[in-house]
């Protein structure tokens, strides 16, 4: 007699919204036969979600709707019954709308939107809300719908001009159609409510409407008629802008148009009175007639102008009387280095200037060129500071008058030095095959000067300041070299066990950027006497050394040249004696062995073997053994306001002993 469920029961399918939901049945019992009636009540469970008819709802609400207006919303459906059915609605947070949930007679729920704050389309064109439906189950089931609210525009904004007053000016001969001004207004509304039409204000005079035209769509104000400055100098035009709404908004602006005068009226000459006839004996200055001249134009357009013709009475004038130009040596050819500027207050051809380079020196014409029209001075080739330091030239500036007037401007071009020359070693001579050996005796104390490296640098200033360092030596502890003098000293006392022959390599560097360098090799022998060294060298050299004959002939040539020089000196006369004695006294008073750093002028303060400049004269003293002769070389005395310097050095080469006296001008120190 057990009653069983034969399949899944769906209350909503059997009974729908009917509650309670019950199923009736009858049972027949045999032996004895009996009939029983029964009923089964199907109870609801929360197995259905609320459902909206669509996932999105759209509303159109005018921005002019007042607060308090209500807007019904579509209801959700829930097939469950009782507490499991739809119970309430919720609305997402927003500043404009609230939700009012109402109950129908049958107990179902529906919702309405209530406007709490008025809408403004210009502030927000549309709103997005979310409506949620909830049933009473545990946990509750829900459904959502998107509500899109379009804010419909209302004509609640009038047009606004971007400025209240516009200003423009036109010439009185301006042709028709010329743009005078462009006015602009804007309206925050949409559609026809925001479309703007421009027009003249109602109180605009008819004369203005005849002279000016206004484009109703673009706001462009153009000339329509013929303007006349003498008739009206200023027009005050009033314009308006309207939208196309049912109740259109209006805005107003003003355009001030100034008419600019042009010289369109000829002068009128009026003869006020004429005194006629005029007596033949009338004195100069007698009034013959009274005239009056009028011109309707304004300002300069109304004057009587008297033209004054120009006369070429002004010479060109340069902004500077002279120019100093500094150019780095090794420059690129063809570069401009100076622009000579000049002016001429005359007019026309009289003020047309031309520039010419006056070539007193042919070298200037090959190196420099000037643009005839604008006065730009060009350098045609590369300059060398060591070749020439300064160039002087004259630039002539001439006008085009008849006769022409001209002005001369002096230009000095100074070639500044670059460090493009490495130091040059004068002693020991780097390009000779002869071996120069300096001799120092054993036991020589420390600090004794053995010899000196002499070098020059063709550059100037710091670029020519040479420093000497010991790069390589047979015994580095035995010798040292002066940093700026090139003098080689014994660093310690010579010992008997020191090597008899020493080779020193001296590195010479200048102070330019980049640093350039050279090297010199010095040979030093340690021996008791010079004769020992000479004997050694003699033993080494072949007995038939052809250089002996060359030396003899050189000495003979020196004797002949010296003799000719003295004969010439004696023939000059006694009037040179006074100057000769002056130079001799100056020479004796300033004798010194001071070594100076080479400056802008090149000099040497000591010269060693094989270097005899052509401007030296020679006195030769020969012994019976020509291989041990002494040769004395002196430079002629010269009168120098800067003083003289001399230095004497001996050469250890067999057969020649040189004593050379040189002079050098004082040079600026590196600090100078």
UniProtKB/TrEMBL annotation:
<dbReference type="InterPro" id="IPR032455">
    <property type="entry name" value="Cadherin_C"/>
</dbReference>
<keyword id="KW-0677">Repeat</keyword>
<dbReference type="GO" id="GO:0007156">
    <property type="term" value="P:homophilic cell adhesion via plasma membrane adhesion molecules"/>
</dbReference>
<dbReference type="InterPro" id="IPR015919">
    <property type="entry name" value="Cadherin-like_sf"/>
</dbReference>
<dbReference type="InterPro" id="IPR002126">
    <property type="entry name" value="Cadherin-like_dom"/>
</dbReference>
<feature type="transmembrane region" description="Helical">
    <location>
        <begin position="552"/>
        <end position="575"/>
    </location>
</feature>
<keyword id="KW-0812">Transmembrane</keyword>
<dbReference type="Pfam" id="PF00028">
    <property type="entry name" value="Cadherin"/>
</dbReference>
<keyword id="KW-0130">Cell adhesion</keyword>
<dbReference type="Pfam" id="PF16492">
    <property type="entry name" value="Cadherin_C_2"/>
</dbReference>
<feature type="domain" description="Cadherin">
    <location>
        <begin position="432"/>
        <end position="544"/>
    </location>
</feature>
<dbReference type="GO" id="GO:0005886">
    <property type="term" value="C:plasma membrane"/>
</dbReference>
<dbReference type="GO" id="GO:0005509">
    <property type="term" value="F:calcium ion binding"/>
</dbReference>
<keyword id="KW-1003">Cell membrane</keyword>
<keyword id="KW-0106">Calcium</keyword>
<keyword id="KW-0325">Glycoprotein</keyword>
<dbReference type="InterPro" id="IPR020894">
    <property type="entry name" value="Cadherin_CS"/>
</dbReference>
<dbReference type="InterPro" id="IPR013164">
    <property type="entry name" value="Cadherin_N"/>
</dbReference>
<feature type="domain" description="Cadherin">
    <location>
        <begin position="162"/>
        <end position="269"/>
    </location>
</feature>
<keyword id="KW-0472">Membrane</keyword>
<keyword id="KW-1133">Transmembrane helix</keyword>
<keyword id="KW-0732">Signal</keyword>
<dbReference type="InterPro" id="IPR050174">
    <property type="entry name" value="Protocadherin/Cadherin-CA"/>
</dbReference>
<protein>
    <submittedName>
        <fullName>PCDGK protein</fullName>
    </submittedName>
</protein>
<feature type="domain" description="Cadherin">
    <location>
        <begin position="53"/>
        <end position="161"/>
    </location>
</feature>
<feature type="domain" description="Cadherin">
    <location>
        <begin position="319"/>
        <end position="425"/>
    </location>
</feature>
<dbReference type="Pfam" id="PF08266">
    <property type="entry name" value="Cadherin_2"/>
</dbReference>
């Amino acid at each position: 007699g057990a009653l069983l469920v034969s399949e899944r029961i769906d209350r909503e399918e059997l009974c729908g919204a009917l509650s309670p939901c019950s199923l009736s049945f009858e049972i027949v019992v045999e032996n004895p036969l009996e009939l029983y009636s029964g009923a089964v009540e199907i109870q609801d469970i929360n197995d259905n979600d609320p459902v909206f008819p669509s996932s999105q709802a759209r509303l159109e609400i005018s921005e002019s709707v007042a607060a308090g207006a209500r807007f019904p919303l579509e209801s959700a459906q829930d097939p469950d019954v009782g507490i499991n059915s739809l119970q309430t609605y919720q609305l997402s947070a927003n500043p404009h709308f609230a939700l009012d949930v109402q109950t129908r007679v049958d107990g179902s729920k529906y919702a309405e939107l209530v406007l709490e704050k008025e809408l403004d389309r210009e502030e927000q064109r549309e709103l997005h809300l979310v409506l949620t439906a909830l049933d009473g189950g545990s946990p509750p089931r829900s459904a959502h719908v998107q509500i899109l609210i379009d804010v419909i525009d209302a004509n609640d904004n009038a047009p606004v001009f971007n400025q209240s007053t516009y200003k423009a000016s036109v010439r009185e001969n301006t042709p028709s159609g010329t743009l005078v001004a462009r006015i602009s207004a804007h309206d925050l509304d949409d559609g026809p409510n925001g479309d703007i039409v421009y027009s003249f204000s109602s109180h605009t005079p008819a004369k203005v409407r005849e002279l000016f035209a206004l484009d109703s769509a673009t706001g462009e104000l153009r000339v329509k008629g013929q303007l006349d400055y003498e008739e009206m100098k200023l027009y005050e035009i009033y314009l308006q802008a309207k939208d196309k709404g049912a109740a259109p908004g209006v805005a107003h602006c003003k355009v001030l148009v100034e008419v600019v005068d042009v010289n369109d009226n000829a002068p009128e000459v009026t003869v006020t009175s004429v005194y006629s006839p005029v007596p033949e004996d009338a004195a100069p200055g007698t009034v013959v007639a009274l005239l009056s001249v009028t011109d309707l134009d304004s300002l300069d357009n109304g004057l009587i102008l008297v033209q004054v013709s120009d006369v070429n009475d002004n010479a060109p004038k340069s902004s500077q009387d002279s120019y100093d130009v500094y150019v780095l040596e090794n420059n690129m050819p063809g570069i401009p280095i100076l622009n000579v500027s000049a002016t001429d207050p005359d007019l026309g051809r009289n003020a047309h200037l031309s520039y010419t380079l006056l070539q007193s020196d042919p070298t200037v014409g090959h190196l420099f060129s000037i643009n005839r029209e604008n006065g730009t001075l060009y350098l045609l080739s590369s300059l060398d500071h060591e070749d020439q330091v300064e160039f002087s030239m004259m630039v002539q500036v001439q006008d085009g008058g008849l006769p022409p007037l001209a002005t001369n401007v002096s230009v000095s071009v100074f070639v500044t030095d670059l460090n493009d020359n490495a130091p040059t070693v004068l002693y020991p001579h780097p390009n000779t095959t002869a071996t120069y050996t300096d001799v120092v005796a054993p036991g020589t104390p420390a600090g004794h000067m053995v010899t000196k490296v002499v070098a020059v640098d063709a550059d100037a200033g710091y670029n020519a300041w040479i420093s000497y360092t010991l790069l390589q030596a047979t015994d580095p502890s035995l010798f040292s070299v002066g940093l700026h003098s090139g003098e080689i000293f014994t660093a310690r006392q010579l010992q008997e066990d020191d090597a008899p022959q020493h080779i020193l390599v001296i590195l010479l560097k200048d102070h330019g950027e980049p640093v350039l360098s050279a090297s010199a090799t010095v040979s030093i022998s340690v021996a008791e006497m010079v004769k020992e060294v000479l004997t050694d060298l003699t033993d080494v050299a072949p007995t038939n050394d052809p250089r002996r004959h060359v030396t003899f002939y050189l000495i003979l040539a020196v004797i002949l040249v010296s003799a000719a020089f003295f004969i010439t000196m004696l023939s000059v006369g006694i009037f040179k004696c006074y100057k000769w004695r002056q130079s001799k006294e100056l020479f004796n008073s300033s004798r010194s062995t001071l070594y100076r750093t080479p400056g802008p002028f090149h000099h040497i303060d000591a010269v060693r073997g094989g270097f005899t400049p052509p401007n030296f004269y020679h006195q030769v003293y020969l012994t019976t053994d020509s291989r041990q002769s002494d040769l004395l070389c002196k430079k002629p005395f010269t009168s120098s306001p800067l003083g003289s310097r001399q230095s004497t050095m001996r050469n250890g080469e067999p057969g020649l002993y040189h004593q050379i006296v040189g002079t050098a001008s004082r040079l600026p120190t590196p600090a100078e």
